Amino acid sequence: MPEHPFLDLANLPAWSELSPDLIKSEISNALERSEERLQNIRSLSQEESNFNNSVKALEQATIYLDHSWGLVGHLDSVCNSPELRTAHNEMLPKVSAFGAKISLDEKLWEVIRCFSEKPEVQDLSPIDHRLLDETIADFRESGADLPAEKKDRLEKISSELAQATQQFSERVLDATNSWKLVVNEEARLSGLPQSAKEAARATAIEKLGEEEGSKSWIFTLHAPSLVPALQYLDDDELRKEIWTASDALGSEKPYDNQSLIATILQLRQEKAELLGKSDFSEVALSRRMAKSGQRADAFISELRDQTAPFFERENQELESYKAEKTGKNSDLLQPWEVGYWSEKLKKERYDFDEEDLRPYFPIHSVLQGMFALVTKVFGLRIVERSVLFEGEVHAHGEENSQAIEVWHPDVRFYDLFDSEGGQLLGSFYADWHPRSSKRAGAWMNYLKTGEPLKNGERSPHLGLICGNLTAPTPGKPALLTHYEVETIFHEFGHLLHHLCGEVPHTSLNGVNVAWDFVELPSQIMENWCWERESLDLFAKHHESNAPIPNELFAKMIRAKNFMAGNAMMRQLAFSKLDLVMHRTLAQDLPQDMESSLQNILRDYLPKRKTQPRTIALRFSHLFGSPTGYATAYYSYKWAEVLDADAFTRFQKEGIMNPETGRSFRKSILSQGNSRPPEELFKEFMGRPPKSTALLERSGLSPTTQ
Can 26 be counted among the known catalytic residues? Predict the structure, then answer.
């Protein structure tokens, strides 16, 4: 056992040793080590300071804190427990305050500023100069030049934001886990695919025990349960009950997030004003591609105007279709009817049911095929390792390979190598299925960023990918929806961005890029989920190993852009909500936030007989961390413009063309924040991005009507 398991930088995490009762002492130790390193920098005279002992030393000063607190945060996401939550929340204010204090430290700022004015700065390499410039920008944008009383308040705001956003996340998780619906009559499950019935039965057995559970079915608010229920159940009242519970997430005691949202918005607005900005978007976006909230808003508005005709036509068609099938007058739909009638219309129009694809997407085939794809396209090789949990070895990987300890038996572990040189670039964990101790959604994160070694190589990176995908059922592997396959590819794109990073400075490596650029590597990977050549690598029937039949593939492609206007408008509505809340409502909080949002978003929201709540009260992207996607949810669409355009090069040169793939790896994946994102994109494409590719791909361009 390592003496300090949370602080061990040399080895892979010893998950069994990362006990909640160690968190206070380990994080306190990390804080002390960080403070010692910072004091060394503060003590430098102007004559003594150089790049390594000031700028580089500052980047490395919190290495133990970043690593240990990263482990705590990860465990909080995947192994949440009362003990862990208590320990995490006890240290959260201290860690947040310490981090905020660094960029407000007058002595540290003086050392960095004085060094930046020395003649030797002109001799720095471009990448060293980039780190210096980013460090200076961090100080200035954090308020380093403010008077002491404003700095003190900024420190307190950082701590208060960390606590409020953590509480928001906990309430969303707890609210999701607190609800379940037990169904005892199989007749009520009419229309539900067999795969979803089996999953509901498995959940019932898990929650009620074998005897009672084997006679029941349980639905939850986790996506693998929620989505098929709303799409397929013929029982309107059952769908209504499930939808109503989902719609209420975050709105009812003890999980009501309304006051927390107000607190978070107020704190962010106060922070902006202390920094001399009009609103939080001007703080968060100044170094992103959009540069300002105004430009982000204009981008979203332009896409809305282009999407609106398709959006309105789709909703009218859906209302007419329901009327035709029920023999009733055309009328607005109830929100719990939308998925159901959409699925029926799609099946009738294209003779296509998403469930027909599920047998072709067993998760092991999807992963193996995806790994084969990145080997061919990007020059990478992935090797699975056996894993160890609670003393038991799960032999997934190569024979005789050392088993790697994991935090749950579902977790897998892989090494990623450069195919040509054989260099170990990094390793990663994968944790794909839901459980009550795990937060919702899908995400990628990094646990370690490799650094240059004396021999000219670099140490390996370490990352992870997590999701809440369809779980296996007795006698069957995990059979995924096509959307879930896209989710895997998406998160793996983020992971490649981290593992392929070659920047010598950790803070500039991998996904540490402008937020509206970070989704390019993830979203471009989704394109390979729609191409015949790539699908044949991973779409294999779980029983026969046969590829998707040509006829089914053709139906899938024809149905690709079904309700694309609604899908686009949904994301635009989220983006608009984000910008409105932070740019307008935060300055004068309305008494009824929901009513204000409904009014402002009326041109973005479909008209329903019962108007759903906005996503605000459960919108963890915005309110689950101190910054996160706040004022930046538009980034998904901004990066989608980039990915749609960038993929046209693959389409032109061959989607499996290794030269194109290596060019993308060289220009984008390996570069991190070494240069402005506009430069990196232009290097890959030979020109600035074109906005038309996204609308054309989505079937929302006049030329595609």
Answer: no
